[in-house]
Amino acid sequence: MHSKLLIFITGLLFCFSTAMAQNENASTDDQNFSEDSPASTVSKDQNTQSEAPDVSADKKIEEPVSDKPMPQPSGSASGKPQWEIGAGTVTVNNEQWTRIALGVDVPIWKFGVFFDLELFIDNEGQFSDKGWNFKDDWVEALTRKIRYIRFGYEQDPLFIKFGGLSDVTLGYGFLVDRFTNMLHYPDQKLLGLQFYLNDIGPIGLTLQTMLADFKDFGNDGGVFAARLAFTPMKSSKIPIVNGISIGGTYAMDINQLAPARDWEVNLPASVRQLNYLVDMNVDSSEAIDSIASWSGDDPIHDYDVYDKEKKATEDEDPFNLIGGDIGVPLIRTSLLNLDLYGQAGIRGDGKHGWGIGAPGVALKVWKLWANLEYRRVQGKFTPGYFGTYYLDERVLRRPEVSTKEGRIPDDDLNGIYGRLGFNIADALIIDGAYQYLVGKEDEDQRFEATASLGDIILSKIPKINKAEAYIFKTNIGTVNDAFFEKSEFMYWGYRAGLEISQGASLIWDSRYGYKRNDEGKLVSNNFISVQTAITF
Fold first, then answer.
1. What are phi and psi of 54, to 5 degrees?
2. pLDDT at position 158
3. By the 8 A CB rule, do 413 and 436 touch?
């Protein structure tokens, strides 16, 4: 596994040296940033939901309009260090702890580093060594001190970012769709990587790579993806033809069972009792009946669960996808953009499973954006596999051990995917998507929606500087028939910001979800953060 990591890093260093050589011949003009440029030091990196795309009339679009917004990373646009002091409650290991943090965003030329120093007070009022245990876990202790390190911005010729990743979409999102490694920030700080080369040379060569967490290699795992695209007729003066782009994507989870390496799996009490009674020469059938009468436990079932969980902590289960896309820009004006596109994906492990999303139409009219595409799936394949909540869904422990791959229905499905968003006079921003694929025995139905107040409304409400609500659900009809029925594949929440004084805000972030407990019952799996942030 170390050799895989070494090969990965070596490839990136080669790309980096190539890009720097290209950059030396490129224009060295500094990038100008408007007020809605990536200037926030907190909100965009913590936000795991998509934001409205830039719909300004003077924005020149070089690539086909994606059906997923592409937010840029946070960083200081002023060129000066931005300080942040925060204190509040956060969810740590399903408990509410107090977190006190001091952060600073330091911009140096095109580089940006966000240092994060923090202290945790547990639910018993004791200072925790979380993030400060250099003796037993120096890697965790060191990496928690840095939220991210970046070079440039996502749409620059060269962009590199280590640390927290949010809203990573490759192509039109058929394989990698708004992926994030910040689902449980600040409880978990994963060390991810983005490496982009954008629009290089006369054919517009573009390389985008993503790695979810370097530390995952230590568990014999690793989630990564890469997309290579080009615009073959870029230098041509033929309208439409000179904007056609072709891309290919590869995405892989080296070991879906990697999180199981951290599970604590102990022999159940009922099994230990059974072994004791058998050692005492008690007939096994009588021993099982006795245990059932004493405690109601079934040692055979309990051992089966134990065996599967123990096996998961030792096994490896890789999964990978290969995809391609093509985009044709039909209309490019300051007010209207219209693209025709197609995309497809197939399993890279030789097992039966593929899908297409074609034809697709992407439309942007002033402050409205929309997508509509026909989708067809055969076998065990699902579009947007590496999505926002993938790191939570890749392996479930309850009610029994299962991977996301294993939960994909094996059927031939047909249907539509649509996305619609609009900004109503900077007063209300709404964005949502819906997919409905149906087959002979199964269906793949999912939806999501986000609504937030715009600057016009927020400016009229004293002290409120952010208000947003969202909901996301997949596996509708296969796990629970009701559209809004609770399930482990449903997430909803809201974010609110209250300005306490100049430069000081109270940030409330609540995400609600569900999981299965040891008895297989659905219980809450929530993340709640209430913090006071002071920037200066």
1. -70, 120
2. 96
3. no
Q: Are 341 and 171 in contact (CB under 8 A)?
A: no
pLDDT digits (tens, 9 = 90+) for 244-263: 999 999 999 999 999 999 89
Helices (H), 25-160: 43-46, 138-143
Helix (H) or strand (E) holding 228: strand 223-230
Q: pLDDT tens digits for 416-458? A: 999 999 999 899 999 999 999 998 888 889 999 999 999 999 9
Amino acid code (one letter) for 512: Y
What CA–CA distance (Å, rounded) separates 475 from 488? 9
Dmax of the chain from CA atoms? Answer: 89
Interatomic CA distance for residues 113 and 76, integer angstroms: 10
- Rounded Cα–Cα distance for residues 347 and 1 (Å): 22
Question: Which tokens hold the place of 56?
Answer: 């300004």
The type of residue at 424 is I
Quick one: pLDDT at residue 482? 67
Residue 401 has pLDDT above 60, yes or no: yes
153-181 residue pLDDT tens: 898 999 999 999 989 999 999 999 999 99
Q: Rounded distance, CA 446 to CA 472, Å?
A: 8
212 backbone dihedrals φ, ψ, rounded to 5°: -70, -45
Tokens 């934001």 belong to residue: 51
Single pTM value for the model: 0.78
The C-alpha atoms of residue 265 and residue 316 are separated, in whole angstroms, by 17
- The whole-number average pLDDT for the span 451-478 is 88
What dihedral do alpha carbons 149, 152, 153, 159 form, nearest 10°? -80
Q: Of 515, 222, 258, 489, give the one whose Cα is nearest residue 382.
A: 489
Tokens representing residue 322 in the block? 């290969």
Query: What's the rounded Cα separation, in Å, for the pair 249 and 344?
Result: 10
At 479 the pLDDT is 55
Bridge partners of 399, per DSSP, are: none
Mean pLDDT for the chain? 82
Report the alpha-carbon distance of residue 171 to residue 425 in Å, rounded: 29
53: closest CA among 361, 367, 469? 367
The dihedrals phi and psi of 159, each to the nearest 5 degrees, come to -140, 130
Measured in degrees and rounded to the nearest 5, phi and psi for residue 88 equal 170, -170
| Nearest CA among 254, 256, 214, 249 for reference residue 229 | 249
Residue 403's φ and ψ, nearest 5 degrees, are -100, 160
* Local confidence band at 123 (pLDDT 50, 70, 90 cut-offs): confident
Q: Which residue type occupies 533?
A: A
> For residues 27 and 525, which has the higher predicted lDDT (pLDDT)?
525
Domain boundaries, given as residue ranges, for the chain:
2-22+37-261+315-535, 264-312
Separation of CA 504 from chain center: 29
